[in-house]
Design a protein that fits this description.
With 375 residues, this protein is an alpha/beta fold. The chain folds into 3 domains: 2-16 and 145-186 and 293-363, Rossmann fold (3-Layer(aba) Sandwich), CATH 3.40.50; 18-138, no CATH class; 199-214 and 227-282, no CATH class. The protein has helices at 9-15, 21-33, 47-65, 76-88, 102-113, 121-137, 151-158, 171-176, 199-206, 229-246, 249-255, 257-269, 271-282, 294-298, 315-323, 337-346, 357-363, and strands at residues 2-6, 162-165, 181-182, 302-307, 327-334, 352-356. Strands 3-2-1-4-5-6 form a 6-stranded parallel β-sheet. The longest helix is centred in the first third of the chain and has 19 residues, at 47-65. It is globular, with a radius of gyration of 22 Å. Mean pLDDT is 95; it is low at 371-375.
């Protein structure tokens, strides 16, 4: 069996630097300056507000580097992320110098320090996620990259039994006609709270509380966005277990009187939980939570080809690969010599073989985009 795992490098290959972290952040600022987010936020967040947030985060980043946030970190995940952040950053001048996921770490640190307004953290993070998802989407251009992939590229991907991706776009599905397993979310699938195929979306629709905006569906997708791969994986695994457990609700309600009595006891004490479970029981075709396919990644066998990913990021992915004893060979495609050295230092040579990403694209008849667009 052969599997392939793809990262953002493929989008940069076929779309140019428009899909790099710095240009994604520049698009956020550009669109904010043009009042392009008025509809998304129903005029509740102005360009002045957005620019103030982005510029303010530059100051926070510099304060983090100066150790001014050390005392606010309380757990191991936060401490590891803090050490890693300070290892990678010095003083910065502009928001686009910050890598995409590090914005969420800065965001998290801000609310750790300002506990008096921490009640706003979840809704504020959701708003920021929508800015990021819209900037990556690039007015829909990201979904057209498959039109720039030639027949050799199509043939390359078609030879794999499983295609995994860290990207939200749907280019590989459109290129190959195959199912693609999105580990971090999918632009084509709404978040469960907005999705009528899910329990929470079904409930919110009946209550007229869905908030998805026509033309901005991509901003309300099921993307996993956070400052830590461990946190993404933890949320994905919780979803997976919830999906498995929820398929037993209907059986247990009919066959286990003690379980049923416990559930009925929740009706007054935990009405939201009761409504969710009863909705699933009465509508067994509804899903409980998005599946991010990490369980499938854990079970693959044979060969795994990894391309478009940096050995410096996504440790949670490489840990899963390392723990999967059924993977016999991993082909890691590096972009640069420095990436190759890092990969050779980080990954076990017994199963890893390192190949040039640039040579692969050359062999497939691809030229890397030289231009920068939609900035």
């Amino acid at each position: 069996m052969k599997s392939v795992l793809v990262g953002n490098g493929i989008n940069i290959q076929f779309g140019g630097m428009a899909y790099s972290s710095s240009f994604i952040m520049k698009r956020v600022k550009y669109k904010a300056e043009m009042d392009g987010y008025d509809e998304l936020f129903n005029n509740s967040l102005t360009k002045v507000d957005i620019m103030g947030i982005l510029n303010g985060f530059v100051s926070i980043s510099n304060d983090i580097v100066d150790n001014n946030y050390d005392d606010y970190v309380k757990n191991a995940d936060e401490r590891d992320a803090l050490i890693d952040y300070k290892r990678r950053y010095g003083k910065i001048q502009s928001s686009h110098e910050i890598m995409l996921e590090d914005w969420f770490f800065i965001f998290h640190m801000f609310f750790l320090k300002n506990k008096d307004i921490s009640d706003n953290a979840t809704s504020s993070k959701q708003g920021f996620e929508r800015l990021i998802l819209d900037a990556i989407y690039n007015d829909g251009d990201i979904q057209k990259l498959h039109t720039k992939m030639n027949r050799k590229v199509k043939g390359f991907f078609n030879r794999f039994d499983n295609i995994f991706t860290l990207n939200y776009d749907n280019n590989l599905e459109r290129l190959t006609g195959k199912d693609v397993f999105h580990l971090h979310g999918d632009y084509s699938i709404l978040h469960s709270s907005e999705n009528l195929d899910y329990v929470s979306g079904y409930i919110r629709e009946n209550m007229k509380k869905r908030v998805v905006i026509n033309g901005y569906e991509h901003c309300f997708c099921n993307a996993l966005l956070d400052y830590s791969g461990k946190l993404k994986l933890r949320n994905a695994d919780l979803n997976h277990m919830l999906n498995i457990d929820s398929e037993k609700y209907r059986f247990r309600y009919g066959m286990d009187q003690n379980w049923k009595n416990d559930l009925l006891g929740c009706k007054s004490d935990k009405p939201n939980e009761y409504e969710i479970i009863m909705t699933k029981i009465n509508n067994p075709g509804l899903k409980m939570a998005s599946d991010y396919y990490f369980d499938k990644l854990r079970k693959i066998e044979g060969e795994l080809h990894i391309l478009g990913m940096s050995p410096n990021n996504d440790d949670h992915i490489f840990d899963i690969v390392k723990e999967n004893q059924k993977i016999e060979k991993v082909y890691f495609y590096y972009f640069s010599e420095s990436e190759k050295r890092k990969a050779e230092e980080s990954f076990p040579s017994e199963i890893y073989e390192f190949k040039s990403m640039l040579k692969l694209w050359s062999d497939l008849g691809c030229e890397q985009k030289k231009y920068k667009c939609n900035v």
